[in-house]
Design brief:
Shape: globular
Strand content: 5-15%
Radius of gyration: 29 Å
Strand order of the largest sheet: 12-11-15-13-14
Helix content: 25-40%
CATH architecture of the largest domain: 3-Layer(aba) Sandwich
CATH superfamily of the largest domain: NADH-ubiquinone oxidoreductase 51kDa subunit
Bound molecules: flavin mononucleotide, FE2/S2 (inorganic) cluster
Structural class: alpha/beta
CATH class of the largest domain: Alpha Beta
Number of strands: 19
Length: about 650
């Protein structure tokens, strides 16, 4: 138990002194992405190999948080050289230990290599994916075993808390956060310092602080990575916030589907209590603060702050009208401050390095960095942290390395399910809260889904509106009915029942749903519809007027048939069709029974390209199948039959 900042500093020096004697460190990403591709076995293999080689005293092996390059996991970094190996398997481990740990040689086949651009990078910092980022929040993940508080302390952890408690008044902490220009990373982008000030000034003895770790956006996983990889950074931010606001109890609301995040934040809280960063008289300052973890059941709407508060109180998670804002009447009616995971993780940096340092990054209206989860049709899927103001083009092409399989970029969807789609003409847009809104999208919590030329934008709108319809709590009728009606019209359009006037009706519905809904779920629900109409209106028109889906996505507008002149009766499509729609048979030209076909496209995908017999069409009628008697193929034998040999006479 630490009783003063001096004791904390002494402990840090002791940890660092012990570490200097360590010869080497092997850090293996143990984030959810890398665990899914076998990181646990890689960690076991390193532990076994290091023990076998008698190096246990000299080499430290640890599982760490996610550094972001999930596409190439499991990721291994060897320090002090910072040699970075990608897609490591247990089989590679003996070679890494023999070559890199013992001989300081690089295993070339495991380092980053881009064959197209002929770029090779041995060190983490030189890999283009990382080189173009500014990783203030997730940069430490690969250096930290999230289950060991000493790793966080070695990097200066909890020094911001000591500074806040012993060198600053609560008002000064609020002032510094205000001056930094930090805006909430949970979606709305509200200035954090102003919110803190309101909660601090709100009358009442009992106040609460809350970490919103609900993260329900499809495709988003940046909060999970911070929770799993560097939980103490969030706790430190939360304790500082509690001190600034005058709260003595805090909650971390994490969705149940994040088991590793729940485990790591639980371990971090226990360790912080043991060391004296939580509980009574923190670091001898006289300030008391406790944290509890609550598990959310996975409803998207429970991420909305007023719904989250009710859920924490054990009631159904339904948003309520504001005001009163949580800052004056939150949990159990007490002043409450809710911030997103990433917002809290920014606080120690601001307090430690100062608002002026923080303000150097970002744009005039959006300061600092932002983590995005870059997913979809992009070569480098993963988490990227860039200064606000980085362009979409840099994020997608310099960091994400562009679109795979030689396809063309079509759009990027930002801001989660209620975000908007941005087309190619806006690729040079500098990403910050305000610029995204101008383009018809939002920052949201940082989801970024890249789409290529094969994506149907009407179907994209239908997909997100369907998600929102399912997740709407149903409390207010504009959201409940408006989103449902938008889904009905969009479904009709994608299934060939679109009619004149549908686009205008969608626009009208979207506008009224957005205006009249109770919470931001309904208020932002128009975004996927309006942004796709704004930038891709022609696709809507093609679907409605020509009953055609140019990207062959909408199954209701696409048909498949087999060209009798090209079919060789190979029977592959016949075997693979799950709806029994291919009428095949040995030596019989196949055809597709249109009454059974659900246009899944499997026959098209499996038909060997050398035959190209399955034809995909949209907006056209399917040709009639050939008559039954014309279906027989007389196959030519590839190997001529040998002439029968006369029986040899016995000698
Ligand atoms: C439907 C809906 C879901 C939301 N989900 C989240 C979420 O998962 N995480 C989050 O931090 N904020 C979420 N928000 C935003 C919160 O209501 C709130 O603005 C945020 O937690 C405040 O923190 P910040 O100021 O740090 O952004 C959601 C909002 C809505 C309308
Ligand atoms: S989970 Fe390992 S790099 Fe993201």
């Amino acid at each position: 138990m630490l009783n003063s900042p001096a004791e904390l500093e002494q402990l840090r020096q002791d940890i660092l002194a012990k570490r200097k004697s360590n010869k080497a460190r092997i850090s293996i990403c143990a984030g959810a992405g890398c665990l899914a591709t076998g990181a646990a076995k890689v960690i076991d293999a390193f532990n076994a190999e290091i023990a076998k080689e008698g190096l246990s005293g000299e080499v430290e092996v640890k599982g760490t948080g996610c550094p972001g390059f999930c596409e190439r996991g499991p990721i291994v970094v060897l320090d002090p050289e910072e040699t970075c190996y990608l897609r490591v398997t247990p089989k590679d481990v003996p070679e890494i230990v023999a070559q890199t740990v013992k001989e300081k040689q690089v295993v070339e086949r495991l380092v980053y290599f881009d064959a197209v651009k002929n770029v090779k990078a041995v060190h983490e910092a030189d890999i283009p994916f990382y080189k173009n980022q500014e990783r203030n929040i997730i940069g430490n993940n690969i250096k930290i075993d999230p289950k060991r508080i000493d790793d966080y302390l070695a990097l200066g952890g909890y020094s911001a808390l000591a500074k806040a408690l012993f060198q600053m008044t609560p008002e000064q902490v609020v002032g510094e956060v205000k001056k930094s220009g930090l805006r909430g990373r949970g979606g709305g982008g509200f200035p954090t310092g102003i919110k803190w000030e309101a909660a601090r000034k709100a009358p009442g003895e009992t106040k609460y602080v809350i970490v919103n770790a609900d993260e329900g956006d499809p495709g988003a996983f940046m909060d999970r990575a911070v929770l799993e990889g560097n939980p103490h950074s969030i706790l430190e931010g939360l304790i500082i916030g509690a001190y600034a606001i005058g709260a003595h109890d805090g909650y971390v609301y994490v969705r149940q589907e994040y088991p590793l995040a729940l485990e790591n934040i639980g371990v971090a809280i226990m360790q912080a209590q043991e060391y004296g960063f939580l509980g009574k008289n923190i670091l001898g300052s006289g300030f008391d603060f406790n944290i509890r973890v609550n598990r959310g059941a996975g409803a998207f709407v429970c991420g909305e702050e007023t719904a989250l508060l009710l859920s924490l109180e054990g009631k159904p998670g339904e948003p309520r009208a504001r005001p009163p804002y949580p800052a004056t009447s939150g949990l159990w009616g007490k002043p409450t401050n809710i911030n997103n995971v990433e917002t809290w993780a920014n606080i120690p940096l601001i307090v430690d390095k100062g608002a002026d340092w923080y303000g150097q990054s970002g744009t005039a209206s959006s300061k600092g960095t932002k983590i995005f989860s870059l997913v979809g049709k992009i070569k480098n899927t993963g988490l990227v942290e860039v200064p606000m103001g980085a362009t979409l083009r840099d994020i997608i092409y310099k960091i994400g390395d562009g679109i795979p399989n030689g396809k063309k970029f079509k759009a990027v969807q930002t801001g989660g399910p209620a975000g908007g789609c941005i087309p190619e003409e806006h690729l040079d847009l500098a990403v910050d809260f305000d610029e995204l809104i101008k383009a018809g999208a939002i920052m949201g919590s940082g989801g970024m889904i890249v789409m290529d030329e094969d994506t149907c934008m009407v179907d994209v709108a239908r997909y997100f509106v369907n998600f929102l319809a399912q997740e709407s709590c149903g409390k207010c009728s504009p959201c409940r009915e408006g989103i449902k009606q938008m889904r009905r019209i969009l479904t009709d359009i994608t299934e060939g029942r679109g009619k004149e006037g549908d686009i205008e009706l969608l626009e009208e519905l979207a506008m009224s749903t957005g205006k009249a809904s109770l919470c931001a779920l309904g208020r932002t629900a128009p975004n996927p519809v309006l942004s796709t109409i704004r930038h891709f209106r022609h696709e809507y028109e093609t679907h409605i007027k020509e009953k055609r889906c140019p990207s062959f996505t909408c199954q209701g507008l696409v048909s498949y048939y087999i060209d009798p002149a090209k079919c060789t009766a190979c029977r592959i499509c016949d075997r693979e069709c799950s709806s029994d729609a291919v009428v095949g048979g040995k030596n019989l030209i196949h055809y597709v029974d249109q009454t059974k076909c659900n246009a899944c496209g499997t026959c098209f995908e499996v038909c060997p390209s050398k035959f190209g017999a399955v034809i995909r069409i949209t907006g056209e009628d399917v040709p009639a199948p050939i008559p039954e008697e014309a279906r027989i193929i007389v196959r030519q034998r590839r190997v001529p039959k040998k002439e029968p040999q006369p029986a040899s006479s016995a000698p």
